[in-house]
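tool=predict chain=A
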Amino acid sequence: MNPTTLSALAEPSRLHIVELLIRQPLTVGEIATRLHIRQPQASKHLRVLADAGIIEIQAVANRRICRLRPEPFRDLDDWLTPYRRLWQGRLDRLDDYLQELQQHPHPTPDTEGEAP
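tool=predict ok
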């Protein structure tokens, strides 16, 4: 997994851009408008994402269309797979334990005689 991908996604505005681009490709101007920032700021974030290989920017006339590239997310998913398995196993064991508790509840201590 490329650490540049995680570094680029660590900044909240860039992560928000990725979340916007999940739905559809957008122009630089549309991204700036949706993030409530100026175009130069949006361009700076987009440059970091493009340099990390997360997005591609296509020039169409005087517009720049930004879209996600799937490869970095496949790499990220591959990297997360062992962690996903680890947590799934732990959650399965927790589920088994909770089901056992529901089937065989432990008696509660007698609270008679205790001060309120």
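The mean pLDDT is 90. Residues 1-102 form a domain with the Arc Repressor Mutant, subunit A fold (CATH 1.10.10.10).
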